[in-house]
Structure formats: C-alpha cells, structure tokens
Amino acid sequence: MAKKSEGTTKNVAVSRYGWIVFLLSFIFIAIIVCIFKIKYAEGQIWRELGKQETVKKDREIRPNRGNIYADDGRLLATSEPLYGVYVDFMSEGIKGDTLMKYVTPLSQELARKFPDRSAAQYKRVILDGWELSRKEIKEIERNRQNGSNKKVKVRSRYVRIVRPDINYVDLKELKTFPFFNQRSNRSGLFTEEKTMRLKPFGRLAGRTVGSIFKDFEAGGTSGLELKYDSILKGLPGLKTRQRVQGRWIDIVLEEPVDGWDIKTTLNVDIQDMAEKSLYNKLVETKAESGVAIVMEVATGEIKAITNLDRVSEGVYAEGNPNAFSYMSEPGSTFKTVSLMVALEDGIVTPNDSVFVGNGLFEYKGKVVRDHDWRKGQDKGRVTIARGMYSSLNVAIAKMILKGYENDPQKYVQRIHDLGLTKKIEWDVPLKGKEGTSVIRFPDDKSNPWSKTTLPWMSFGYETQVPPIYMLMFYNGIANNGKMIKPFITKAFMKDGKIEEEFETEVINPQLCSEKTLNEVRDILRGVVTDGTGKAVDSELFPISGKTGTAMIAARGTYEGYYVSFCGYFPSDKPQYTCFVGIRRPVGSPSGGLMPGAVFKNIAEGIYTKNLVSTPVAAPKDTVNSLIPNVKNGLLRNTEIVLKKLDQSFTFSGGKIDWIKARTDSVSNIVLESNTTVQQGLVPSVIGMGARDAIYLLENAGLRVNLIGSGKVKLQSILAGSRIVRGSTITIELN
User: Fold this and answer.
1) Which one of 204, 205, 616, 666 has the largest count of C-beta atoms within 10 Å of its C-beta?
2) Closest of 202, 191, 200, 234 to residue 216, by C-alpha
3) How far apart, in whole angstroms, are the C-alpha atoms of residue 312 and residue 562?
4) Which element (helix H / strand E) includes 310?
5) pTM attached to this predicted model
6) pLDDT tens digits for range 568-620
C-alpha cells in the first residue's frame, strides 16, 4: 500500500507540474502574440500615441539677428530678448498665507526696480489677482457640482505684474524678490519671451539703418534691415520637447545659425551733426523736406546721410530716402557738369566772355532768365568764370549753345561718358527710377527732345539727377578727377571677424584732363569767395562748391523751389564732400543761405572735431617729465610697458593680477589691486582698455557688447553685482 501511495503522489506532482508548465507556456505564447500584435499590427497607432504623450512636435529655434554697427564699432541696431512678466494666480502651488506674508515686501521691491507704479499700486494688482482667482475657482467648482458645462472665463491665469517688457538681467533680479524667489509652480510667476530690435542712438540714421516688422520673424521693412535681411536673419534651428522621468526637456535636433553683422561707414558724430543742422534749418524755413549727405573723398564711404520729411508743423522725421528719391531737376549744381564738358572740349576758357545783358535771353520763342533779371541791370559781357560765380543761366546756356547747338548729341554723350547715368546698385532698397539719373538723348522717342531742351539742360533743367549722383560727381572733382561710388556697407562680419569686405568701386578713373580739373576747382572756390556761395565761406578753412536753385515741376507747371549746395572741404586738401538739399522752403529761395548754411555747420563741426586734432608738441626739455596715461588692467602687461618706457612706478605688492592705476600728488604712477575682481561678482572694468575688459568679463561668464574705443567709461551692470552667467553687459569706451 505504501508503494502505491508513493507512486500516486509522484504522478499527481508530475501532473500538476505539467499543468503549470502548460499554463506558463500559454501565458508566454500569449505575451509573444501580444508583443507581435502591439509592435506590428498596432505598432503605428501606439507609436503615434506615445509621441503625443512624451514628445512635442518639432519647433523652430530662432537665430539671433545680426547687429548693425557704425564705422567705429558703436551699435546702430541690435536685438535683445525681452520678457513680459505675468502671474498665474490659479497655480496649484500658490499658498494664500505665504502670499499675504510676502506681498508687502514684494511690492516694495517691485516699486524700487520698476517705479512706474508705487508699492501700494503693485500690492493692489497682486491682491486683486489673488481675489479674482478665488472667485473663479469657486465658480468653476459650483458649475461642476451643478453638472453645468458652462465655461468660466478665467482671467487670473494671466495677470501682468510689470508693465514694460524687461531684459534678461532684470528678470534674473526679479526672481530674487520675496515670494518670486520660489519655484514657478509655487509663485505662479511666468514670462512671455519676445525679441525686440533696439537702436542705442534712437532715431539717428533711422531711414538708412531701417526697421523690422513687429513680427520679428517677418524681417526688415526698410533701409539696411530690408536690403540685407537674408544676411542679418540667419537660419533657424530645430528642436523637440520630450518628456523624460516626468519632466519636459528640450532636445536640439539642429542648431540655429545666427545672422551676420553689418559694419557700416556711418560715423555717429558726423551723422548727429548733419541731422541737427538740417533739422534746424528745415524748421527755420518751414520747408517740406531735406537731405544731407557727407562722403569721405578718398574712400567713397558715406559718413552721414539724413533724410527728413515734415510730419507736422515744425516737426520732421526720417521718411523717404531723399538722397536717392529726389528725382527732380537739380538746378545750378548741374552747371559744373556743363562747365567741365565745355572746358574739356575746348569750347571756352574760364576767361572767355559772353554777353548776358540784363539777364534775359530769348531762344526759339522761350526766354532764359537769370535769377536777378528783375533788377534790370545791364551786366554787358561777363567771363565764363564770373558766370559761374554768379550762377548766370544766360552765360551757361550761351556757352553750351556755342559748342553744341548743331550737335546736341555730342553734349549729352559727353555727360554720359562722365558716368553720371551709369546704373549703380545702392545699399538701400529703392523703388522704380529712384537712385538713377535720367539725361535723355536728342533721338529719345519715349521722351521727345524739344527745340529748347539743350540750353535749359545746360543749367539743370530737362534732367533728373538725384542728390547721390551730384555728390558722386563733385567728389570726383575733389578726388583728383577719380569718380568713385558712394557706399554705406563696409563689411559683413561673423563673431567679430570680417567675412566679406567691400572695396571702393571706381565709376570713372578720370573725369577730365588735369588742366580742366584745375580750372573747375578754381571756379568752384571762386563761387564761395566771390559768388552766390559767400555765406558758406569759413574762417577756419577753405570751402569749394556750387549753389543750386530749381523750380519744382508738378502737374504740368512749377510749384515751389528746390535749393541745394554741393561742395568739398578743405579746398586745398579735400577730405569730405557734402551735399545738402531743401525742398519747398518758405521765403526767398537761396542755395547759399539755406542749404549752404547747413553745409557750413556740418563742415566746421567735422573740421574742429577731426581735422585739427593734431596735438601740440611739448617743449623738448619737458618730454622726459611727461607721465604716460596708464590704463587699468592686467599687472604683468602694465609692468612690461612701463619698463620699456623706463618709467618708474610703485604697487602694493602681493599676489595681484588686476590693478587700478593712478598718479599721486608728486606725479608718481601707483598701481593698486582692483579689489572688485572677485569670484561670482561683476568686476569693475572702468578705466581698462577693450582687450583687458573683454577678457575679464567673458572669463566671468558674461557676454560683452562693446561700444567705441579707448578706455572704458561706462558699464551697464554695476561692479559688485552678482553674476548671472550668459547675461549681456554693455561697455562704452571713450
């Protein structure tokens, strides 16, 4: 019996084991089937669902738009991320008692930092937001209990706390304030980031620099911002957001490529002079609009270009690109073109005379009039030079008729040969005919040549020459006959390094012979010393140029005047050429008294700033006693320089790297430790050169924005502030 019992027990155990194995095998097979079903049959569905739960769709990473710089590195346009500051008062982590505890000190800090509201006003905004959130929560709960599907308009989730958008540095400081120094789910604090285009010099050169759309990604709307939008914009990157261990993290799929920077030829100081001088004259003369352009003679670099249009009584602002869009008859500044052509072809000499009489000359039924014809004074015969000095239309018309009456084609061809009609690509976006010269030939069927076109063309009518072309022509005279293209864009840069640099473009290597050039120069000087440009003459240096006055064609007649002055200075060694034009001024139009006065102000401002800056040499017996101006900076470099100069100095000793330099009461150089250089704090770089300042600040984890050259005189973040790595500090040098 015992043996049978043991066998039975064994069989039962084996049977049970078999069932267990079978059951496990079944479960295993079922699992395998489910795996295949999930992976292959339903795989696509589950993968899409998984992505929805753990991965956000790909999103663009906006690149940084490039900066626009003046010729000395000062910023004309830059981009800065700004943040709108809000509180979500329905955030689950906000505790009412904690908020009430800190609302007063928080409001006080907000009022100190952002004083457009008082502490009491900030407190009221915060408490109102909190009370509103409680009401909305109660209403939502009441609807839920009643089974109502009525939606509650929730306004307490987006309560704006700080009115203006703030920068990153201010945002980091804001997050240290009472209550806001908690995690965002407990404080409810959140921000809305946007990128703004900033112009450190405000409206200076506003039309030329241009602007961008409010929608930052749409790019430029005018000026350089539009012309080089693709260069400045850069290429966007790509990122995705993925949920990992309950937290969302950004995963960069493709890094963005920041836009290139643009270095211009514009000089901030000269631009400021030009704008102020032109603005004041426009207000004084109640003119419709005006333009002023300053060009460096040897290089073609435009140092200033201002275009002002009247927006209301006594108020002017940058509007149309007047330097290119004044497609009107230039008037008497064009007489210099006629003079050069006639002198070069041997038609006349400066001393040849022509009869002008009382300033009236009838030609084929149409009367040419001089500006002073109403005086009735009989001037008899005058020389060509005198005709230019006094801007006599009759003298110039007769000069051109003498040489080209029977062959006007030759006259026009000579003008074209000068390069005054050459199609040129400019640095700013233009429309239609803007930025081109229109000087038609006698056989032009689209714009027929009349029997009186030739004499009227000789003194600046029957043509369209914008200011930029007149400037280019007069600059050619100043530049020993070499006419070059005026330009604004100097270089494209990436990370401070030049990627593409633009060179001077020659339009005409030689306008005329040296003999003709000297004769024209003498006459342009005479216009200022003994002619219509007397008001432009300066006691500081010689100026040469030509006045212009033209009636403006409108609706088949003439309405108002366009007055201008174009010239260069100093006459003996020209450095700058300048054009000033004013449209429809009130009062007696005068190229010398109106635009000429603006020209003189600009020229004297530039001269006193730049052209007389040569230092006076010290007497020989005092040279060795002169004390060098030592910059703050790195000790070892300062020691090397002072030892090379054989200059004695003292310093406090010890292990110091960064020093401040001063001169004591007995003219000894003293080097002292820069105690502001401390780990985790913003150092003082005042008095340092650019190289040391950038090195020190970037090593501290800051991004540096540099303005000017020389020594640092200002820094945007105060020394001793706690460093927020990655934030931008602006340092201004002088």
Assistant:
1) 205
2) 234
3) 20
4) strand 302-312
5) 0.71
6) 999 999 999 999 999 999 988 898 899 999 999 999 999 887 644 444 344 44
